[in-house]
Amino acid sequence: MSQLYVGSEVGQLRRVLLNRPERALTHLTPSNCHDLLFDDVLAVEEAGKEHDVFAQTLRDQGVDVLMLHDLLEQTLAIPEAKQWLLNTQISYFRYGPTFAQELRQYLASQDHAHLATLLLGGLAYSELPLTSSSMLPSMHHPLDFVIEPLPNHLFTRDTSCWIYQGVSLNPMSKKARQRETNHLRAIYRWHPLFAGQDFIKYFGDDDLHYDNANIEGGDVLVIGNGSVLVGMSERTSAQGIENLAANLFQHGQAKEVIAINLPKHRSCMHLDTVITHMDTNIFSVYPEIMRSDLETWRLTPNDNGHGLRAEASHDYVNAIESALDVDHLNIITTGGNSYEAEREQWNDANNVLTVRPGVVIGYERNVYTNEKYDKAGIKVLTVPGNELGRGRGGARCMSCPLERDGLTI
């Protein structure tokens, strides 16, 4: 495998991790979708077709596309990885010692492809062919989940994020997503593409309870030039950012982290839903949220090489200009009138994935914003998103870059 390195948001994208939505979406219903962090149910087959177009668009641009299900299946073929993952995901604390042991034995008997499908897509009590001596199964209805589905695994951006020469395995804030990280821990520890490779694990790889130190990758933008832009959202805490920053500095992988305090509501759950990087000095911005008065901090290493210091910054735009060493940023705002702009931001018009400088992938439905991108010289490769967009995530959310070139300034 070529080098695991992500040097920017806009350099040539070379390798990416996606997750095609399948079984998990079939378990999404009007009665449980909000608990599973979705606003609506998706048409499963159509969502899969839309995702196939997205993946093929990346391949057509020369990007090597890896699929999470495939990597997990191949990781489960390694006995040590399989044992660790079953012990972790089917823990005594989650299920009680009796039922956990019985459930592990059943899952261990499945072939690796089906086991990966169950871990990602969920399992109901009615689908479990075993008689248990535990209290737990008799206390549940047949359609209750033994293993909750993980439909948000569609958004591979969040669970882990590669930053320069390493990765953060993110402690997720929402219960519905916390098990996702264990899949990536197993893959990055044992899968042949990653095991033995020279990369740093900054944060989140230890089997710990990370308390208030939460991070999700949608809040992390590797803007390049040794700088990282991070949003303090409803999903990423100041404690998480400071822990990540301290480890980046300790390993000499960043010179500064710019932290922006975002409003804590659903329409801007992550930083990349309101700002993304499209070319060296070009950003897409939703101005209703990304105002100049947002509280912004600049984190830098302490002189002694340990820890960090935080100082308030007057304006996130000025902070980014300084970090990138550019005279000014070209800001492209969400298109249309105020109604159209709000609607398109909700449909991820600002959440584009840059393939190379000035070339991005976005949903075709965001016609007003895409037109503004085009007029600004940004080429938009459009993909369908009528179903995928219901999950509140666009092309950037649905992709985890593993290898990307740095900036060319």
Automatic annotation (TrEMBL):
> Where does the record place it?
Cytoplasm
Which pathway does the protein contribute to? Amino-acid degradation; L-arginine degradation via ADI pathway; carbamoyl phosphate from L-arginine: step 1/2
Task: Kindly identify the residues recorded as the active site.
Answer: 397 (amidino-cysteine intermediate)
Q: Which SUPFAM superfamilies match?
A: Pentein
Q: Does the keyword Ligase apply?
A: no
Q: In its keyword annotation, does this UniProt entry include ATP-binding?
A: no
Keywords noted in UniProt: Arginine metabolism, Cytoplasm, Hydrolase
Pfam families assigned to the protein according to its UniProt record, in alphabetical order: ADI (PF02274)
Q: What class of enzyme is it?
A: hydrolase
- Name the Gene Ontology biological process terms: L-arginine deiminase pathway
Q: Which reaction does it catalyse?
A: L-arginine + H2O = L-citrulline + NH4(+)
E.C. number: 3.5.3.6
A single GO molecular-function term is: arginine deiminase activity
Q: Cellular component GO terms, alphabetically? A: cytoplasm
Where is this protein primarily located?
A: cytoplasm
The record ties this protein, via Gene3D superfamilies, to: Arginine deiminase, L-arginine/glycine Amidinotransferase, Chain A
User: Which family does the similarity line name?
Assistant: Belongs to the arginine deiminase family.
Identify this protein by name.
Arginine deiminase
Native source species: Vibrio palustris
